[in-house]
Amino acid sequence: MKGITMSTLDSLQHGAQVGVLLPLLTAIVQQPAWSANCKKAVAVVAAFIAGLVTVAADGGWDQFQHGKLTMATVFGVLAASQTSYDLLWKPSKLAPKLEALTSGKTPQQAG
Questions:
Q1: What is the distance between the alpha carbons of residues 90 and 81, in angstroms, rounded to a whole number?
Q2: How far apart are CA 17 and CA 39, in angstroms?
Q3: What is the pLDDT of residues 46-72, one digit of tens each?
Q4: How far is CA 59 from the centre of its chain?
Q5: What's the CA gap between 86 and 9, in Å, rounded?
Q6: CA 77 to CA 93: how far, in whole Å?
Q7: 107 within 8 A of 98, measured Cβ to Cβ
Q8: Chain centroid offset of residue 61 CA
Q9: Is the pTM of this model over 0.85?
Q10: Where are the domains of the chain?
């Protein structure tokens, strides 16, 4: 039981670490003209993929047989990415600037 708890905590920690940086990577793909719903969908799909990659990087492909750990990591990435975007990357305007930069528009044109 103790080993499962540690593995779950490790999964959440690794998921959170990935999730904090994920909004910056997502901003490179997203475009300012996209609707809010489209941006949310891209963010959720990116978090799901990043969570799966994190699980594979931590424990190899055999790790996927532990469904609870896989889902804990995926949800950890999702929660951390949404929280860090709302509390850090959006207020600092870094993520919106990256979106504008990769779309070829100035931040004023994108907004």
A1: 11
A2: 21
A3: 999 999 888 888 766 666 677 788 888
A4: 19
A5: 24
A6: 21
A7: no
A8: 20
A9: no
A10: 13-29+40-60+67-110
